[in-house]
UniProtKB/TrEMBL annotation:
Keyword Membrane part of the UniProt annotation: no
Species this protein is from: Natronospira elongata
This protein's encoding gene: argC
Its job: Catalyzes the NADPH-dependent reduction of N-acetyl-5-glutamyl phosphate to yield N-acetyl-L-glutamate 5-semialdehyde.
Protein name: N-acetyl-gamma-glutamyl-phosphate reductase
Catalytic activity: N-acetyl-L-glutamate 5-semialdehyde + phosphate + NADP(+) = N-acetyl-L-glutamyl 5-phosphate + NADPH + H(+)
GO terms under cellular component: cytoplasm
């Protein structure tokens, strides 16, 4: 469909009242190839979009639906579904939902992008370990392409089932993949920092603003679900399992991810490493290798991931910053849609 001047895509967003759903509404509204957008939210059915996303008032207007209008979707030349629902939701409903798509001859021609962790791991046993429950549809796991846009572009072209990577996993892989092309560290120490929006719209005892606003703490050390995703993806690249430890932290900010990766690689020098990163991401518009150090403020509201490097006496540090709701979620989902449909991957993303 590349080069078409009309707006042939009809997009359906499941879980559209959440933070990721709001970013999808904003991005898709401005996308040059997207015509109609359906936003589904059972909790906000019948309400205007700005009831959940006040910043859209007057700019992006519409009404939440209680359920998808699959007949309208079936009339589209290019139907696309984004699931921005919590972990487990799409997988639990997938058998019935895919049957409903098949009834309207949508199943084989609809691009489905899942923003949750339901189909990222590709293995039922790994999913059970990471998420603490059996996978609802293990037979469907092999149908999904892992959508790390900058490193999976060829696999994504023409894909109809796309598992969007997690925000931490996106940042870690973008930071590490070029390094692992040069060396195999004995050990990787990975520290992650995230803002409160990564916990979703419903507050808990640890994510509620009064508990989080002036605090900084670690959580799920060495057992965060994204660690399994990181291990699996990096092992697939290197052909063997890597020894690493991932410790995420909760920071008093709303948006953003900051990753620091540390390794010991004697003989590595910063100039050579920087040249390799520049070559690895040449032409990749959304990856910016900065001369100083990455900052969360520099990426908020963008689909960019900023990378920084430091090397001294064999100690190698790679840093990454991105917006968890855009490059770590909705923006990468649209980037993956673009790649799947043969569009410019930056279309609609600035």
């Amino acid at each position: 469909m590349a080069g078409q001047a009309n707006r042939p895509i009809t997009a359906l967003i499941l879980g559209a009242a959440g933070y990721g759903g709001g970013e999808l509404l904003r991005i898709l509204h401005a996308h040059p190839a997207v015509g109609e957008v359906q936003a589904v939210s059972r909790s906000h059915a019948g309400q205007p979009w700005h009831a959940a996303h006040p910043r859209l008032r007057g700019f992006v207007e519409g009404e939440f639906l209680a359920k998808p209008d699959l007949d309208t979707l079936a009339a589209s030349d290019y139907p696309v579904i984004f699931s921005a629902q919590p972990n487990g939701s799409l997988a639990r409903d997938w058998s019935a939902f895919s049957a409903a798509l098949a009834d309207r001859e949508l199943l084989s021609r609809t691009t489905v992008v899942d923003l949750s962790g339901d189909f990222r791991l590709g293995d039922a046993q790994a999913y059970q370990v990471a998420y603490g429950q059996p996978h609802p549809v293990p037979e469907a796991l092999g149908q999904w392409v892992y959508g790390l846009s900058e490193h999976q572009a060829e696999a994504l072209r023409g894909a109809r089932r796309i598992a969007n990577p997690g925000c931490f996993a996106t940042a870690v892989q973008l930071a590490l993949k070029p390094l692992l092309e040069l060396a195999s560290p004995d050990w990787l120490a990975i520290t992650g920092v995230t803002g409160s929006s990564g916990s979703g719209v419903h507050p808990s005892a640890t994510t509620h603003h009064p508990e989080r606003a002036d605090d900084f703490r670690a959580y799920k050390p060495l057992q965060h679900q994204h660690e399994a995703e990181i291990r699996r993806a990096l092992a697939a690249q290197g052909g063997h399992a890597l020894k690493l430890g991932f410790v995420p932290h909760s920071a008093p900010m709303v948006r953003g991810i900051f990753i620091t990766v540390q390794a010991y690689l004697p003989g590595m020098d910063e100039e050579s490493l920087r040249r390799h990163y520049q070559a690895s991401y040449e032409g990749r518009r959304f990856i910016r290798l900065v001369d100083d150090l990455p900052r969360v403020h520099s990426v908020i509201g963008t689909n960019a991931c900023d990378l920084g490097l430091a090397v001294r006496d064999g100690q190698v540090v790679v840093m990454a910053a991105l917006d968890n709701l855009i490059k770590g979620m909705a923006g990468q989902a649209v980037q993956n849609m673009n790649l799947a449909l043969g569009l410019d991957e930056s279309s609609g993303l600035g």
